[in-house]
Amino acid sequence: MRVLVAEDDDRIAETLNVSLTKAGFSVERERDGEAAWFRGDSETFDAIVLDLGLPQMDGLTILKRWRAAGRLTPVLILTARGQWEERVDGIEAGADDYVVKPFHVQEIVARLRALVRRANGLASSRIAFGKYLLDLRTMEVTADGVPMDLTPQEFKLVSYLVHRRGQVISQLEITEHIYNQDYERDSNAVEVLVARVRKRLGADVIRTRRGFGYALGDGY
Amino acid sequence: MRVLVAEDDDRIAETLNVSLTKAGFSVERERDGEAAWFRGDSETFDAIVLDLGLPQMDGLTILKRWRAAGRLTPVLILTARGQWEERVDGIEAGADDYVVKPFHVQEIVARLRALVRRANGLASSRIAFGKYLLDLRTMEVTADGVPMDLTPQEFKLVSYLVHRRGQVISQLEITEHIYNQDYERDSNAVEVLVARVRKRLGADVIRTRRGFGYALGDGY
DNA sequence: CGGTGGCCGTCAGCGTTCTGTAAGCTGGAA
DNA sequence: TTCCAGCTTACAGAACGCTGACGGCCACCG
Predict the structure, then answer these.
(1) What is the pLDDT of residues A175-201, one digit of tens each?
(2) pTM recorded for the entire structure
(3) Which residues, listed in sequence order, are joined to residue B206 by a DSSP beta bridge?
(4) What are the phi and psi torsion angles at B116 (to 5°)?
């Protein structure tokens, strides 16, 4: 497990380094924002610990850039006590978790483990597709942070397609997965639903494979 | 906050039940190991108090199974005085904290609160959200030092939402975590409760995500 | 012991939003 | 051109959540 620690305070960084190493992570460290952004953008880590108050480039900016570039590496944010707006901003910018300073190192370790597990397992709580971000925690699909206001059924459909990205899925399969068992065989409910999603997210999001079913559009 | 107490001794269990309930937890209890394991595996609790000496299935086994299955619920272990090895084993098996019998109930309460807080990434027992301050010890919500006089149920709701800030929580989840097991399936108790909290703290505090559930409002 | 007040779940009614259905239309494939 | 899978639109019933009123329950108090 490779972790990037982006933290300018030497004392904190050293504490993290010791504990994380002991916990079996291999730790890389950067002290300024620009360097941190570059490494996070060009290398692959299993998780990143990101202090919001970095010199050169602000932590939030870094995070947003990564997310905009489609980097899905789990990010744990370090924020000063009581800066709750920062936390909210951080989450909206795409942080997967945050910890308030001063913190217990054990906590960071535990949370990093959880993040990595979640990211490796099937269930990451945030999935990017095209310009959209699907968040299972908030049950939201956003484009650049703007919520798309999907209804429950619409969300289910998108969510299902995204989870099976790259595959063509028949109407029957869709029906079975997003409806209860008491569905009507001959019903155009799915077609209508697809139309509704297209109206919200754009016609390209769902591609029709006439005679076979539907799939996420190219580039999604 | 929903807590599972896995304890075979009726007297101890009852003591815990009373104190934890008074402290704002909703308590579920199991007396034997197998039942405890099953419930901890299949339901979600915010914390678990686990006696190591349970009939049917040993506490350590239970804990290991939960951890092996990826259950991250904070677990506080009850262990007999002087059983030093048990404690070590417990920690290695994935316990988050332990208390030695005989114990002061206050200590359990305090430690449980700390566990729940830590599990949710909150450092202090006083948590700010928006202009409000939530104090878990006094069970009070204040705005600029002015108490908002929430009733116990109202406080539970707010507290739960704050602990899970950033997530959308379904009515079912809310019911499960702030009421005891004997809840009515079809009841609008939660809706009414939400309305009452909004009347006190302002309509924005709780956002409705129609068809999904509730979440703390933007900026909280 | 009876009265009072606060808490809280239930209920009925209402407005809003969601969603499946139906009916007619479109467009791609053969 | 024909045909049919899929699209579009309108609509009505269902689902959802909000509100105000009510009453049971319990603690407190005279």
Answers:
(1) 888 887 666 667 899 999 999 999 999
(2) 0.73
(3) B216
(4) -60, -45
